[in-house]
Amino acid sequence: MKIPDKKYDFVIMGSGLGGLLCAYILASEGNSVIVLEKNNQLGGNLQVFSRDKCIFDTGVHYIGSLDEGENLKQFFRYFGLLDNIKLKRMDDDGYDVIRFADGKEYKHGQGYERFIGNLVKDFPDEEKAIQTFCDKVREVCKFFPLYNLETEISMDYFLSEEIRELNAYKYIASLTPNVRLQNVLAGSNPLYAGVKDKTPFYVHALILNSYITGSYKLIDGGSQIATYLSKVIRKMGGDVFKRKKVIGANYHEDGKIAEVLIEGGEVVKGEKFISNIHPAVTIDIFGENRFLNAYRKRVKTLENTMSSFTVHLTFKKDTFKYLNHNIYQYNVEDVWAGIDYKEETWPEGYFVCTPATSKSEEYADSMSIMTYMDIRETAEWDKTFNTTASPEERGEGYEKFKKLKEDKVLEKIEMVFPDIRSKIKSVYSSTPLTFRDYIGNYDGSMYGILKDSNNPAKSFINTKTKIPNLFLTGQNLIFHGILGVTIGAFVTCFEFVDRNKLMEKVKKAK
Length: 510
Ligand SMILES: Cc1cc2nc3c(=O)[nH]c(=O)nc-3n(C[C@H](O)[C@H](O)[C@H](O)COP(=O)(O)OP(=O)(O)OC[C@H]3O[C@@H](n4cnc5c(N)ncnc54)[C@H](O)[C@@H]3O)c2cc1C
Fold this sequence. Notes:
By secondary structure, this protein is of the alpha/beta class. It has 15 helices and 20 strands. Strands 1, 2, 9, 10, 11, 12 and 20 form a seven-stranded mixed sheet that branches. Strands 7-6-15-16-18-13-19 form a seven-stranded mixed sheet.
C-alpha cells in the first residue's frame, strides 16, 4: 500500500508498544500521526507466531501491576485496553515459582501479604529480612513519580545517589546470610537479564513490585495489544503501515528532518519524528554526523542486555496440564550465574511458561522455555537476515546448531517434567538472530540498554536528540517491559502535550 502524500504532525518509526502508545496519545490530542513498521506484523516484541495451530508469544509472557489501583491498570484504562484484551489472572498463591536443582520450590505470591507469608513459611527464621526486603522494594518504587501516576519529572530517582547506586545483588546479600533466601528473593532476575555486579536494586524493585501487585497472562497472545491500538489509531484518523522500513532522512537547512526515506523509494514528510528503534540504530539511520561525538560514542558503546535462545514446544492434545504460573529453574545455586554460562554447562537456568489459550483451561497446547544466549554463539550466520517480510534460509549448519541446543534444553527440562518427551508433538526454537532481525537491533538484546549501578548516568537516554525534531521512545528510554515502555511513551509525549493535563486524563479514565 502506498503512503499518502501529506505532511504529518508526527512520523513514528517502529510499531513496538512505545511507538503505538505515542501514536495513540498524540492522535487523541488531535495530531495527525503515521506509524511506519518494517515487519509484516505490528507490535515489535508483542508479535506472536503460530506453529501446529498454537500461538507463541515472542516477548510478553506475563504482565504485572493490574490489581485495582495499580499503575498499569489505570494506564490500560486510559488506552481503552482493559475492555479490549483478554487477560487471565495467574495463581494467587504463586505466580512465579523459583525452583532449584534439589527440587525445592519457592512461590512468589500475589499481594505483599502472600508474598511475605509464603517466604516466611519457607524461611521461618528470616521474617525480619523478608519484611525489610519488601519495605525497601516499596520505598524505592516511591522514587519514580510516573510509576505512581504522579506528574513530576520521571527521573527523580536520579536525585538520590543511594537509590541509583544501590546494587541488587549486594543489597539482598546484606539482608541475610541465608544464600538460598537471597537466591529466592532475586530468583526472577531473568525478567531484566540481571548482572550480579551491575544491576541496580531499583530495577529489581520496580519489576518485582509490579508482578506482586497483579500478575496476568494475555490469553491467546500479546499481539492483541498491537491489534487493538492500531485499530483505534486508524479510527482517530492516523495511518499505520507495515512493510515500511525507514532507512534514512532528508533535512531542512536548519538541521531539522524534512522527511524520512523508506526502503523501496517512498518518502514520508513530517513536522516531528519519533524513533521507537534502538538509539544506536537510530543514530545510523539518521547519520552519525548529525549527533554530537560524545553522545554517539556513549550510545554506541553502551552494553545491552543479554539475548535469548528460546525453545517452543507444542504438545499432543490434552496431555500436558496448563501451568497458571511460571517456573524459574536453576541448575546452579547462584541465580545470577547463568548469564555468564559455560558452553559445557549451558543452560544453567531457564524460564518456563505455558501460554494461556481460549481453547482449554485444563491443558496447555504449548510451552516456551527461555534461556540466555550470547549472540556471539551465532556469529557464523551473522550475515544472514530472516524475517517473514524478508525471508532467507540461514542454512543447514544453523539448523544443526539449533537442534543441538534444543536437545540440551530438553535434557534439562526433563529434570522438572520427567515424562515431558512423550507429550511433545514438535520442537521449534529461536536464537539471538531471530530477535535481532525481528526487532531491528544489532545484537538480539532482549531488553535493550543494560542499567549499571556503578555508572547510572551512562545508560540514561533522553527523549530529545541533537536533531531538533527527532525524539526517542521505547524500552531504551526509561525502562523495558510493558509497564516501563508505557511510562516511557508518556515521557516522550510530555514534550508535546501538557503533562499535568495528560496525567489528569489518565487518572480520571474509567
Ligand atoms: C524474550 C522476551 C520476553 C519478554 N517478556 C516480557 C514479559 O513477560 N513482560 C513484559 O512486560 N515485558 C517483556 N519483555 C519486554 C517487552 O516485550 C519489551 O520491553 C517491549 O515490548 C519493547 O517495546 P518497544 O516500544 O521498545 O519496541 P520494540 O518491541 O523493540 O519494537 C521496535 C519496533 O521497531 C521496528 N523497527 C526497527 N527498525 C525499523 C526501521 N528501520 N523501520 C521501521 N521499523 C523499524 C521493529 O520491527 C519493531 O517492531 C520481553 C522481551 C523479550 C525479548
